[in-house]
Amino acid sequence: MIQESEAEPAAESAAAAMGKLTEGQVMAKAHSSDLENVKKLNCWCGELTDVSIFRQMPNIEVINVSVNSITTLEDFAHCPNLAELYIRKNCIGDLAEIWYLRNLRKLRVLWLADNPCAAGDHYRLTVLRMLPNLQKLDNVLVTNDEVNRAMEHGLDLAPPIASLRWQANGHIAKDKDMRDSSVEISLDETNKIREELGLKPLPVDKLSPAKHRTGSSKGRNANILTAVLTLIKELDQDTLEVVANACKDRLESL
Q1: How many helical (H) and strand (E) elements, i.e. helices and strands, does the chain have?
Q2: Which helix (H) or strand (E) segment is 130 a member of?
């Protein structure tokens, strides 16, 4: 484990001042000249919001980014050798973010406490249901009995949907553009979801134009439906079960 008391470098780049972890900072902290050679990194208490640099660090094994302002776990999904992740006291609000860690087969230690997502009653059991290979969660050892209870009582979370985050960031097309460019919007939404699942993007000719609807809401729903139906063909049984449960929960809430 990296000690959080290690001193931070005195010099901070302009990008760091904006909350982005840069390649130069990583090199300085890790005393390395190549991102792929970095095995451990301590960026504790750095006011970070953007750690997308980890997407370029496939061999990283231990990451400490506690006490920052990180809002998503998505960037860590690109670190297949990650064994320990310390990310307490950040801004992870949605517990479904742990879905991004599900394929990190070497992950054994996760410290996620003191994030907003950790406040729920079923937090620990839900994390262990999604990540049953963890040996320690929030500095507490995981037992076999606890994992068994997690499989029974932990919440079955649906994956975060990239298109929803994309829309929330203000990149929704204007209503007129949506009506005039239904194919492009459907394809874009589909490929963003496919990227989340590690699938290759679809070419334009794979989607047919959705029929125009009166009203932007109906047009948008048609686009999303086209994207979802196309994506379903690519999913395996486990992922389809997640989608089915999410659909069931949604129908019950209507």
Answers
A1: 9, 6
A2: helix 123-130
pLDDT on residue 204? 59
Give the model's pLDDT for residue 211: 41
Q: Is the per-residue pLDDT at 183 higher than 90?
A: no
Is the pTM here over 0.70, yes or no? no
Residue labelled with tokens 């000719």: 205
- List Cβ<8 Å contacts ≥24 apart for 242-249: 242/156, 242/157, 242/158, 242/159, 243/158, 245/156, 245/158, 246/158, 249/158
Please give the C-alpha separations between residue 242 and each of 106, 160, 200, 223, 237, in angstroms, as whole numbers.
23, 11, 20, 22, 9
Indicate the SS3 state at residue 192.
Answer: helix
| CA pseudo-torsion sign 226, 228, 231, 235 | negative
> Beta strand pairing status for 140-141 and 136-137?
antiparallel
- Judge contact between 83 and 106, C-beta under 8 A: yes
